[in-house]
Amino acid sequence: MGLRDYLTSKVMPSGGIGVPEALSLLASGATLVDVRTRGEYEAGHAPGARLVDPKDLTHDAFGAVHGDNPLAEPDGAFVLICDTGLRSGHLVKAVREQGYRAEFITGGLAAWRAEGQVLIPGPPRPPR
Known about the structure:
The chain has a four-stranded parallel beta sheet, with helices on both faces. The mean pLDDT is 91. It has helices at residues 3-11, 19-27, 38-43, 54-59, 61-66, 86-97, 108-114; strands spanning 31-34, 50-51, 78-81, 102-104. Helices cover 43% and strands 10% of the residues. By secondary structure, it is α/β, with parallel strands linked by helices. It has one domain (15-114): Rhodanese-like domain (Oxidized Rhodanese, domain 1, 3-Layer(aba) Sandwich), CATH 3.40.250.
C-alpha cells in the first residue's frame, strides 16, 4: 500500500462535495475559502478564493473570512479548499460547529484542475 492509498483509506475525511456542486454553491453566494499556506496560495489559487489561516478559521470563521465587512452575509455558506481535500476536510467540522453551513471540495485543487477549472497566481486580497 502506497502513501496515497493509506491517506485515502485512513486519513482522508469522508464526505465533501464535487467541483460542480461547489460551483453551484459559489454561484448562489457561498464564499470560497482557501486554507493552504500563503506560498501555496500565491503559486496558484481558484479565482475569488480567500486565503484564511486554519487557526483563525477554527476560532472565528466569519471574522477570519469576512473581516469587519458590514455587507458580508452572516448566514452565507463557506466552501473550503486545499490541495487534496485533507486539510479542508478536517476543518469543515470546526466551521459547522460555529453554526455555519460549510462544505469542502473532495480532492481539493487537484479535483478543481481535473474538472478544467483555472488557477491564478498572486497574493491574497485583504478582507473587505
